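// run 5 | inverse folding | seed 20
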């Protein structure tokens, strides 16, 4: 992911079950540009982040480890930027 399109559309899903490893559902939490969604999720508590997955338009899913790696990148655009 060296050239990241921070404007790519992302749907943020949150695991909505009771924590069962065998049966779980996801609710849509938010959607928008990758940069904004990364900033939003990075600002959450670690407990809340643990239940998050990103559905990146045309590219598949990102887990929370991948999302936090994006949040740490120096080229993550500032809010409004």
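// decoded
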């Amino acid at each position: 992911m060296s050239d990241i399109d921070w404007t790519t559309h992302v749907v943020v899903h949150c695991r909505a079950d009771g924590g069962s490893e065998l049966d779980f559902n996801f609710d849509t939490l938010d959607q928008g540009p990758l940069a904004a969604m990364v900033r939003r999720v990075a600002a959450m508590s670690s407990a809340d982040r643990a239940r998050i997955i990103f559905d990146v338009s045309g590219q598949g899913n990102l887990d929370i480890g991948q999302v936090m790696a994006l949040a740490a990148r120096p080229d993550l655009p500032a809010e409004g930027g």
